[in-house]
Amino acid sequence: MDTQNAINETQSSYDRIGELKAFDEGKLGVKGLVDAGIKKIPNMFIRPLEDRLKDFGTSSKNKSVPIIDFASLSDENNDRTAEIAKEIIVASKEWGFFQVINHGVPEELLEKMIDRCRMFHEQDAEMKKKFYTRDFQSKSVYFFSNHDLYKSKAACWRDTFYVNARHTGGEVDPKELPPICKDVILEYINPMHKLGDRILMLISIGLGLESECLGNMAKGTKSWSIANNYYLACPEPELTMGTDAHVDTSFITILLQDSIGGLQVLHENKWVDIEPVTGGLIINFGNILQMITNDMIKGACHRVIAKSAGPRLSVAFFFSGVFSSEKIHGPIKELTSEDNPSIYRKFSTEEIIKSFFSKSLEEVGDNLDYFKLKYHGDGN
Ligand code: OGA
Ligand code: NI
To answer: Where does the secretion signal sit in this chain (predicted)?
Structure first.
């Protein structure tokens, strides 16, 4: 039997569902396994061999996403604003990602956010278990490992603490937040909105739209969500992944990472590391923005590799638009023309969020086809 067959054999001969269920019912995530002292990763985390083989030769060194400096940016719409807006559009077309420095969010707040989120994951297991759930639609604060645990080909080596203020118009009840990180989360929301508004304004200007255009569409009543990912040091990092390749379901995402690294963006079919920049924040464009800009801006495919170093902390702040079943979004009229007709039909944020949760993370990129006019043929 060759290696490929041997591995296929191992992968199919174990009780995968049983292993997933036991892991899920333990409610302690990957940290629970590491705390129990495992030296090899359980089968459920091992990526199929063909997927691992496909990765060979796909990493690209000596390239990096643009760093954009907001230092001289004022609230006025002047020459500097136009220049930065242009830089953002170039970054969006070439990378779908950029890093921003001098963004106005205090560095101490970023450090505190990382520290407190770390404390959430490292607190007493019984406290953490109380937040463990797979009810992602109605709860606003939860802890879990792998939202797509039962759908993906292999589980990823990370735990997640999540705050969802999509359904509540951006409001979160402080009483529901875990005491260990409540204050910093509440403190984090406004600076993220300010920065998010600024970036949406710059993209609008860069695309030749009214400066408030995207801000008005994305923000609604300030709908947002936060995913705090905790990537543990992995004993066999080459066999698994931290986060599978995906495109975010958002207008934009503001991502904070610590100094460990592991995040990669797909650029010209190669994976490029997004190196940590002290005090910097990472901005990436999601598939909602791609659809409403009629593909002028592309959502970027990214992933996080597993590492032997850790734990690595990251905090993703998603702007996904106000949660509604009304089909109010679709390609912006000003961005379409006879020569450049709408690619997508109208859609609601509910539809797109639901389609996100119905699939494995890796399949999210295919979601866009479902929203294409040609998918339905009749444009409805
Ligand atoms: C995400 C994501 C990257 C990271 O949560 O969507 O891509 O570095 N996170 O954790
Ligand atoms: Ni992402």
So the answer is: none
